Structure prediction request, 414 residues.
Amino acid sequence: MAPLILRPASPAHGGAAVARDDGKVWLVNYALPGEVVEAEPRGRQGGVAVADATRVIEASPHRVTAPCPYFGQCGGCQLQHAAYAHQLELKRQVVEEAWSRAGLRLPPDTAVLGMDDPWRYRIRGEFEALASAGGWRFGFHRMRSHSVLSIDSCLIHDRRIESALPAFAQAANELELKGLQNLLLTVEPTGHGLLWRLRFRGREPKWPRDEFAHRVAELLPEAVLLDDAMSLEFWDMTFRVRSDTFVQTNYQQMLVLYSTALSMLAAQPGDRILDLYAGLGTISVAAARDSAGVTAIEENPHAVQLGRLNARINSARVEYLPGKVETELRGVRLGQHQAVILDPPRAGCEPAALAELIRLGAERLVYVSCEPSTHARDLVGLVRGGYRVRRAAIVDMFPQTYHIESVALLERKG
Ligand SMILES: C[S@@+](CC[C@H](N)C(=O)[O-])C[C@H]1O[C@@H](n2cnc3c(N)ncnc32)[C@H](O)[C@@H]1O
Prediction:
């Protein structure tokens, strides 16, 4: 059979490039727009044919050699074959396309804020356990698969996380632990703490937890091993973080994201702010410093508990409403808040949450999103409800991967 030759022309969300061949649309992994590649079909994804580029016939000037030996097999990174400046341009095009498909125009002055050094940025990593002939190992899911690829290095994680993995595997082997599922590691960006959580398949069995922690600590003398909470410090504030709560995985870019969002929010000393999907309260506490106070809404009870503690640690005027945004907003009275910041998970906002936001009619909304399609969808809902998009920014929280974080400022019309 003749090899499949494809000419991708534009980027798709997910890291692939879109090619058209005889009217048929292909998503081509590991190819860049403008290239000619030989490709191998890999089935379908969301109704579209998928192929992997197996040979580059005409390379893009933006193509680079991926530095990671696992690139192409590992499910973690999709864009290492593109120069970093080009990754940022591809992400801008993906956002622009998502907005235009929803009927919106991405403001032409939208900044794309990347990293000077787009490696070793992750302060949190979740590693799958793999029972190999030589004992336990840790790794990641393979691309489009549930099988696990064990790894010795990962260039997007903090080096302290990478070097801790063999110690956890060795201790698990020495203590003959059974049924491991995954290991979550989070490092303190400005301290020595290493927060760990080991999960088992099914119900957690009885296991020698203290002995395990002791052995790992012996093997990692430079780390301060923590299994309850760690510190996250920035801008003279300090927060407690736990394994069961969300934390921004890219510390450096978290600061860029928060500065960008808070400057859009432009809180005035007399303003009251709503922080929706507030997590453990980093944005709430930071916004409380510039305003009369913040009402934070969050559904994860562990995050609410930590958020209240974080507000106290930082003497910040933050009040938590525990529960779902779509439900809790119903109890918020009109005219109480001048500005809202929201940072929902990938699925975006429930229609009821958007309806409540429109009812409340705050002057300014700052919407932070990690999924361009739901961001665009929700922005359209808010525009229909009387808002206008004033500014936008893309903050690259996830270099080398397809993930995109974008922020939009909306102002109420009239
Ligand atoms: C992307 S995180 C944002 C956290 C925070 N803004 C930060 O920067 O750390 C989303 C948060 O929304 C919470 N969440 C998800 N769905 C929710 C809902 N329907 N109502 C309230 N909180 C929700 C999650 O528990 C999580 O803490």
Remarks:
- The CA atoms of residues 111 and 393 lie 5 Å apart.
- The radius of gyration is 23 Å.
- The domain at 100-115+250-412 is CATH 3.40.50.150 (Rossmann fold).
